[in-house]
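Lab notebook, bench 4. The sequencing result for the construct came back, and we need a structural model before the next group meeting so we can plan mutations. Quick request posted to the team channel:

Model the 3D structure of this chain.
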Amino acid sequence: MRLGIVGLPNVGKSTLFNAITKAGAAVANYPFCTIEPNVGVVAVPDKRLDFLTALHHPAKVTPAIIDFVDIAGLVKGASRGEGLGNKFLTNIREVDAIVHVVRCFEDSNVIHVEGQTDPADDIETVNVELILSDMEFVERRIEKTKKLAKGGDKKLQADLEVFERVFECLSAGRSARTLAFDENEKLAIRDLPLLSLKPILYVANISEADVGGPAPDLVKPVMDIASQENAEVVLISARIESEIADLEDEEREGFLSELGIEASGLDQIIEAGYRLLGQISFLTAGPTEVRAWTITRGTKAPQAAGKIHTDFERGFIRAEVVAFDDLFRHKTMAAAREKGLVRSEGKEYVVQDGDIILFRFNV
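Done. Here's the predicted structure in token form:
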């Protein structure tokens, strides 16, 4: 999973990136501090791994990981190459989902690139540039498809209708993600590099004073826009996240409790990222290794096995499965097996989040 952190300059992108990755990216109070995208690899926090580690005492523990990409700040005109526009847009094409950081705090000491704090305007600035870039791609595809469809190919004609519907949406100033597509339409647009179609998570960067309390007024327009796009919103303070990042696990829990926060910004962003991309984790456990594997929701057992090794999928026989909650409740595999909670599943089994699986195969 690769999440790109975007936003206008000076909204707290790099501060947030540093906090959640501890990667040491440069942070400064001026536009275009981030030029080349910084990439941080983050282990997905998963308490299930802690339990399995205590149970098996493995030689190795491997959590699931997410790549966070801190992308250069965008300004108006990026789609025409203004600022670092072309580089910005290229970097977004390479991520699975967008984490759009929006400034929802007032601070005279931190320069706003537009001179005032206006979350709705900030979101529109970024979205418009993504839409304009998308329009160029779709327009070219429409012209090409029209020529090819002159022979009467029904599939091409159907594809053309989809492209024209997307272009109409973009021309109205709406992101492609606001449209609904059936399975055939999804196939038609699969190879279109649409930036405004990427799943998006809005991160409202609030002041330290607003943490743990009701959402400040500046967050409301962010929530309104997100609801129109079927997107999610997470409220965090990048500065608070910087403080959290420097604490040990036990200190972190106490600090979050004092602030009235149930989960850190990192945890919230990861959970939202999994939901946005329809991802889940299954687990493998034993004395050699305890590991979390990320798959798409709806994946069947043989394909999940293929995440471990292609031989596992090719020679799949069955999967021995126990739900994590069942194992946690009964403490040992032997006890779970005695209760009939360890199941033998075949090729049609759809893997569930938290399944602990032993694959049987023969090549």
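The first helix runs from residue 13 to 21.
Will bring this to the meeting.
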